[in-house]
Amino acid sequence: MAADALTTDVVVVGAGPVGMMLAGELAHGGVGVVVVEKRRAPSTESRASTLHARTMEILDSRSLLPEFGDPPNEPRGHFGGIPLDLTLPSSHPGQWKVPQTRTEVILGEWALSLGAELQCKHELTALDDSGDLVEAEAAGPDGRTLRLRCRYLVACDGEESTVRRLIGADFPGRDATRELLRADVAGIDIPGRRFERLEHGLAIAARRPDGVTRVMVHEFGSAARARPHGDASFEEITAVWKRVTGEDISGGTPLWANAFGDASRQLTRYRHGRVLFAGDAAHRQMPVGGQALNLGMQDAFNLGWKLALVVRGKAPQTLLDSYHDERHEVGRQVLANIRAQSLLLLGGPEVEPLRDLLTELIGQEDVRRRLAGMISGLDVRYDVGGPAHPLLGARLPCTEVRARRRLLTTTHLVRSGGGVLLDLTGRPGRPPAVLDGWADRVTALDAQPSPGSSLQGTDRVLVRPDGHVAWAGPGTDGLAEALTRWFGPPR
Question: Under a CB-based contact definition with an 8 Å cutoff, are residues 267 and 275 in contact?
Answer without folding.
Answer: no
